[in-house]
């Protein structure tokens, strides 16, 4: 016992927290993520005006390594889309996200999107971000290339996630 806190109950509390996060993802985020049809043109995703929003699985985004992250490969799993920054107070989130990903990767995929939209907290290049994540947090979950998550230059996947006109479900703020 440390100051009246049992180590075992702390572990149980962490496990309950992770279970709660998974439930929140299942109940709140997944319906939002379940909707849009896209066509690929000149390596950009363009929403077809003739087809209603259908599914997040239509997205393909550039990965931090220069590869392509194809959301269709995540069918059957929950998807947690997270905007990240290497120089913010929440940077240790990488460790928790990696733990979550490793523990539940058969049912959940975490996709990180580095963004510099908040106080210039992600100033690095894709190469610098990749090295930082690997060296400091041993990140193995998919990481997209640096994007904008809000504003006029918002990435298509974030536009889809935040605009009812795109996702057919609801507007949301980042």
Explain what you see.
The chain is α+β, with helices and mostly antiparallel strands and 174 residues long. It has a single domain, classed as Glutaredoxin (3-Layer(aba) Sandwich). It contains five helices and six strands. The strands form three sheets. A two-stranded antiparallel sheet has the order 1-2. The chain is globular. The N and C termini lie far apart (40 Å). About 19% of the residues have low confidence.
In short:
This protein is an alpha+beta fold and 174 residues long.
Number of domains: 1
Low-confidence stretches: 7-11, 26-53
**Would you tell me the overall average pLDDT?**
79
Q: CATH top level?
A: Alpha Beta
Strand percentage: 15-25%
What is the helix fraction of residues, given as a range? Answer: 25-40%
Q: What general outline do the C-alpha atoms trace?
A: globular
Terminal Cα separation, in Å? Answer: 40 Å
The biggest beta sheet, please? 2 strands, antiparallel
Q: Please, what is the CATH homologous superfamily? A: Glutaredoxin
Per DSSP, the total helix count is 5
Tell me the layout of helices and strands.
Elements: H1 7-33, E1 38-41, E2 44-47, E3 60-62, E4 68-70, E5 78-84, H2 93-104, E6 108-114, H3 126-137, H4 156-162, H5 164-167
Parallel strand pairs: 5-6
Antiparallel strand pairs: 1-2, 3-4
What are the main properties of this structure?
Glutaredoxin; 36% helix; globular; two-stranded antiparallel ribbon
């Amino acid at each position: 016992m440390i100051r009246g806190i049992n180590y075992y109950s702390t572990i149980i509390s962490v496990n309950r927290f992770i279970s709660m996060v998974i439930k929140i993802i299942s109940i709140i985020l997944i319906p939002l993520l379940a909707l849009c049809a896209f066509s690929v043109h000149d390596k950009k995703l363009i929403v077809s005006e003739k087809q209603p929003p259908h599914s997040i699985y239509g997205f393909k985004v550039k990965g931090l390594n220069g590869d392509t992250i194809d959301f269709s490969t995540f069918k059957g799993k929950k998807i947690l889309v997270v905007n990240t920054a290497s120089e913010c107070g929440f940077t240790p989130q990488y460790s928790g996200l990696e733990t979550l990903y490793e523990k539940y990767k058969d049912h959940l995929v975490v996709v990180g999107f580095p963004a510099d939209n908040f106080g210039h907290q992600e100033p690095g290049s894709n190469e610098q971000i990749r090295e930082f994540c690997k060296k400091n947090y041993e990140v193995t979950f998919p990481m997209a290339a640096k994007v904008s998550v809000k504003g006029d230059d918002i990435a298509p996947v974030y536009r889809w996630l935040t605009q009812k006109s795109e996702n057919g479900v609801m507007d949301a703020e980042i």
